[in-house]
Amino acid sequence: MTDYIQIADYLTKGLETDIDKARAIYIWIAHNIKYDLTQINSGKCYDSDQEIINEVLNERQGVCQHYSELFLAMSKSVGLESHLISGYTRDIFGNIADLSHAWNGIRIDSN
Fold first, then answer.
1. Would you say the pTM of this structure is higher than 0.85?
2. Does CATH number 3.40.50.2000 belong to domain 4-106?
3. Tens digits of per-residue pLDDT, 52-108?
C-alpha cells in the first residue's frame, strides 16, 4: 500500500479523537520512514508537494521535508487541521543553523 490516503484511513479507522489519529499517523511515519543522511546537503528540488510524498512513500526514506509533507497530507486526509512550518533551527551554541528545517503544527482539541 503506497497511497497515503489509504494508509491514513487504515491507521485511523475506528479512532475518534484528533490526538489518537495524529498519534497513529506519527507513529506509522516514525516506524516506516528512515532518515536519509545522504539527502541533507543534496539541494534536490521538487516540482510539487505530491512529488515529495511519492518519493518518500516509494523510497521509505527522506529528510525533514519528506516527513513533514507526508504527515501534513496524511493528517489532512483524515480531517485533521495540520500545517507545515518551514524555518531554521539553532545549533548547540544558540546560533541559527545554516540548513533549513521543516516540521508540523497540528490542532488538537481546539488547541
1. yes
2. no
3. 999 999 999 999 999 999 999 999 999 999 999 999 989 899 999 888 889 999 999
> Whole-angstrom Cα distance, residue 110 to residue 25?
19
Identify the residue whose cell numbers are 551554541: 93
Grid coordinates representing 46 are 521538487
CB 57 within 8 A of CB 70: yes
> What spatial distance separates the first Cα and last Cα of the chain, rounded to whole Å?
32
CA distance 34 to 21: 21
Instruction: Give the pLDDT confidence of 77-88 residue by residue, as tens digits.
Output: 999 999 999 999
Q: For residues 5 and 97, what is the distance between their CA atoms, to the nearest angstrom?
A: 34
Rounded CA separation 110/34 (Å): 31
C-alpha cell at 74: 496524511
Residue-range domain boundaries for the chain: 4-106
